[in-house]
Design brief:
The complex is a heterodimer of chains A (330) and B (323).
Chain A: H1 2-27, H2 35-75, H3 79-83, H4 97-103, H5 106-137, H6 145-157, H7 162-171, H8 179-182, H9 189-202, H10 205-213, H11 218-229, H12 231-247, H13 250-255, H14 264-273, H15 283-329
Helix pairs in contact in A: 2-15, 4-15, 5-9, 5-12, 5-14, 9-12, 9-15, 12-15, 14-15
Chain B: H1 22-57, H2 70-73, H3 80-87, H4 90-108, H5 111-122, H6 126-137, H7 144-155, H8 161-171, H9 180-208, H10 212-220, H11 225-250, H12 258-263, H13 269-272, H14 275-285, H15 289-318
The chains are: A mainly alpha (330), B mainly alpha (323).
Chain lengths: 330, 323
């Protein structure tokens, strides 16, 4: 790991050199002759500056928060209030109608169940696959390690493309099966790299030596020593995979025709983007349906987002670490 | 991505001669680590089946693929598919759209996370700081479908918050999504909304690693906060920003299918049709596998070349490349 660490150190050093030179220039302008006046001026400037920072951050906060608030408020409002555009950031005529409608919609419920299945099973497969390749490749004495690592990383730089991949899935007979959602993108190279870096940096060689002296087999070392030590890593990559699975729709769009297999995201796309609400009925019926459809869009957006957003505050800490591993490598 | 990393050699239980043939070394490694090789087996098969076989399948770009003869049995046609592609009047616009959209996204998404990180770094109120961070980071967890749905809902001239605001200011019932001129702005704006908080984390970490003595030195030299940012913080962020920019340029043709496809409609197609969406339509929807694969291959090769060039240039200029 020395390489990576030294690279980071160099970056910091570069920064330090660049920065150390600069302030002394500003200090050398002979302002010292009037320390009192300058001091007061600086405090004023700094105060204004901090105020600007607060204002900026508030703007950032609002820009992210207000659209979300509008969506949530709309989802809790009456169909008529939504359709006539009365809702701002607080529900009008509070009702849970949007949610009862959504949860009474068989397509949405089925999509939700499918998404949970794909996310849980897919994450297990992905994490197992990632550990299975990253752990052996992190061991220094394994012959062929560099070649295999190179071959794995190369897939990040060059890919066959969508159509050739489709042909593979087709020839394996996976089209319109649940496997099509679980297998084609099971292992992410980025996650493999993160895992390799983790194993190499956080498991000291002495651990392996001690275990070997005690006569533990390689798989036993992995299972009883390395994996328990790798819990934070597993949390990070499991999360990354879970979020990817929950949010993905492209694979489903490509490989699944059968409505019974479609994940929530694809159902949502049907509801929201394609405006697919089913027709029929007389004018007042259509109007009522349209109002309800407007409301349903808002509530399904919330339903599709909540599982990830609820998990998010608990995992944000781990997630940041995961990004940082990537950043250091970058 | 530097994976060949030196480490102190591990102590071997049995001493071995320095120079052994590869075969002998493999045999010994296999004897000792057979369980690890066993573990590797399934993922390696996966990489072959789902990564390397598709690369091989890409040769249908040079064939006239038909499902009966399969990838290997279909007749060769040389560069016919490429000639058809380059001769297609849609093609220049396709490449242009892809490039402009990606470049616009890349350039627009560089400064905002830096500004957010710098501002967060200046604020001392812990609660406020944490709230802003938590909230701005959150959109990263929201799926593309939901982001696009929200965009459509918000921009809807009938029910949407923004759509109604525009109407309020006398623009009449404008549907920005139906306007080809606005597609790129909408795409980039949603991108910024989604990724700014996430990207800021990386810059915040870079700021956290700045040596405290630099700030002290700056303080003694009488630097204002602005000067501190200019002469301490920004230089500290430069290497990170450079790497992110390089990565972005290398990935410029790899811009994703998902959002562009969802934001697309018949009215904004002149700017929103990019290579990945066109591949999907030609290859999957129209079942023209060879032409779809040709465009995909063209894109993959351009991407690879870009990445190699950018990496080389970056190594020359900044001394740090991706590998």
């Amino acid at each position: 790991m020395s390489n990576v660490i030294s690279k980071e150190a160099v970056l910091v050093e570069e920064a330090a050199v660049g920065a150390a030179a600069a302030p002394s220039l500003t200090g050398g302008r002979g302002r010292r002759s009037e320390p009192r006046g300058v001091r007061i001026k600086e405090i004023k400037a700094d105060r204004a500056f901090v105020a600007v920072a607060y204002v900026l951050l508030t703007v950032f906060l609002l820009v992210v928060l207000l659209p979300l608030l509008n969506i949530v408020a709309s989802s809790l409002s009456s169909p008529h209030a939504v359709s006539s555009g009365q809702v701002l950031f607080w529900p009008v005529d509070i009702t849970f109608r949007g949610y009862t409608e959504a949860l009474g919609n068989p397509a949405i419920v089925r999509g939700f169940a499918n998404s949970i299945f794909y996310t849980v099973v897919g994450t297990v497969i992905s994490v197992a696959g990632t550990v299975a390749i990253a752990y052996p490749l992190s061991r220094q004495n394994l012959f062929g390690r560099k070649v295999i690592t190179g071959a794995v990383v190369f897939t990040m730089l060059f890919s066959g493309g969508v159509i050739p991949m489709y042909l593979v899935v087709q020839s394996l007979g996976l089209l319109d099966t649940r496997w099509a959602m679980l297998l084609p993108n099971a292992i992410g190279v980025w996650q493999v790299i993160i895992a390799m870096v983790f194993f190499r940096t956080s498991i000291p060689d002495e651990v392996y030596e001690a275990a070997q002296l005690d006569g533990a087999s390689e798989l036993r070392i992995l299972w009883t020593i390395v994996l328990p030590l790798a819990k934070p890593l597993i949390a990070v990559i499991a999360l990354m995979y879970a979020i990817m699975q929950w949010n993905s729709y492209f694979d489903a769009l490509l490989y699944l025709r059968d409505a019974d297999l479609q994940p929530l995201q694809l159902v949502l796309r049907g509801l929201l983007v394609l405006n697919d609400m089913g027709g029929g009925g007389d004018v007042s019926e259509q109007l009522r349906r349209r109002e309800l459809a407007d409301l349903l869009r808002y509530s399904t957006v919330v339903i599709a987002t909540v599982p990830m957003l609820v998990a998010y505050p608990f995992v944000a800490k781990y997630f940041n670490k995961g990004i940082m591993v990537g950043a250091v490598k970058g | 991505m530097t994976l060949s990393v030196e480490q102190a050699p591990r102590v071997e239980v049995t001493p071995r001669p320095r120079q052994a043939s590869n075969r002998a070394r493999f045999a010994r490694s296999l004897r000792r680590y057979w369980q690890l090789y066993l573990l590797l087996l399934v993922p390696i098969v996966w990489f072959i089946v789902f990564r390397y076989v598709p690369m091989a399948n890409a040769i249908i770009a040079f064939k006239n693929y038909n499902p009966i003869d399969g990838v290997w049995g279909s007749p060769w046609v040389g560069f016919d598919n490429f000639e058809r592609l380059f001769g297609n009047p849609v093609f220049p616009r396709l490449v242009g759209n892809t490039f402009i959209l990606a470049a616009y996204t890349l350039i627009a998404s560089l400064p905002l996370p830096i500004i957010l990180a710098l501002a967060l770094n200046e604020v001392r109120l812990r609660f406020f700081k944490r709230t802003v961070q938590l909230v701005t980071y959150a959109p990263y967890f929201i799926s593309t479908v939901v982001i696009v749905s929200m965009t459509i809902l918000l921009l809807s001239p009938r029910v949407g918050l923004l759509g109604r605001t525009f109407s309020f200011f006398g623009a009449g019932q404008v549907d920005l999504l139906a306007d080809a001129d606005f597609f790129r702005h909408i795409y980039v704006a949603t991108d910024l909304w989604t990724t700014t908080g996430y990207s800021a984390v990386i810059y915040l970490a870079a700021l956290a690693s700045v040596d405290v003595s630099l700030y002290e030195a700056a303080k003694i030299d009488g630097a204002t906060r602005l000067q501190k940012i200019r002469h301490v913080d920004l230089p500290a962020l430069m290497p990170t920003a450079t790497i992110i920019l390089i990565l972005g340029v290398g990935n410029i043709m790899a811009i994703g299918f998902e959002k562009a496809f969802l934001l697309q409609n018949a009215l904004n197609l002149s700017t929103s049709e990019i290579i990945p969406t066109y591949v999907y339509k030609t290859g999957i929807l129209n079942a023209n596998f060879s032409l779809g694969a040709t465009i995909g291959l063209f894109n993959a090769v351009i991407s690879l070349v870009l990445l190699l060039v950018v990496n080389t240039v970056s190594k020359r200029v900044t001394g740090s490349g991706l590998w």
